[in-house]
Amino acid sequence: MQRLTTAFFFAALFAVFSTTGAIARPVVNLKLQADLVTHDDKGVEKLVPVVDSAGLKPGDVVRYIIVAGNSGSDAATHLVPQGKIPAGTAYEAGSASTSDALRVEFSLDGGKSWSVKPAVKVQAAGGLVEKLADPSSFTTLRWIGAQPLLPKTSETYTYQVRIK
């Protein structure tokens, strides 16, 4: 009986460790980069890495680039990257892009609520009416993916802001 119990224990232990090693997991790393958008004498766009925001001036455009990479062995499902609109800047309408987003959603309240087309209520002659929010009032944006992020792949998300 002792041998049977010991054999059963080791068989159970082997089963636990062998399946644990086989569990596939995504490993997602996010990298954020900020570049000042400039143009040369011929109008060709150039990106200059922003090292310190002290050199930025009103009217400058900064492009944020978020790279999500999955170095794991399983697809990353429900990946929802978010970008903040820093204080003192305004989101540039239509600048959010990616090759694999089902939709881009925006927030007016730091990410508590989301909408593809955020609206605000304003006072009009006939009372309160709802109108589309100005993109300069956006505080955060996020991308809702159309597909999982497959193993050993990456996806790039970009958006731009203008310094106020």
Q: What are the SSEs and their pairings?
A:
Elements: H1 2-22, E1 28-39, E2 45-49, E3 61-70, E4 82-84, E5 89-91, E6 101-107, E7 119-124, E8 127-132, E9 140-145, E10 153-163
Antiparallel strand pairs: 1-2, 1-3, 3-10, 4-9, 5-10, 6-9, 7-8
Written account of the structure:
The protein is mainly beta. The chain has a single domain (25-163), classed as Immunoglobulin-like (Sandwich). The protein is 13% helix and 42% strand. The protein has one helix and ten strands; from the N terminus they run H-E-E-E-E-E-E-E-E-E-E. It has one helix spanning 2-22; strands spanning 28-39, 45-49, 61-70, 82-84, 89-91, 101-107, 119-124, 127-132, 140-145, 153-163. Strand 7 and strand 8 form a beta hairpin. It is flat. The protein starts with a helix and ends with a strand.
Measured between the Cα atoms of the first and last residue, the distance is: 79 Å
Give the percentage of residues in beta strands.
35-45%
Query: At the first level of CATH, what is the class?
Result: Mainly Beta
| Sequence of secondary-structure elements | HEEEEEEEEEE
Main pleated sheet: 5 strands, antiparallel
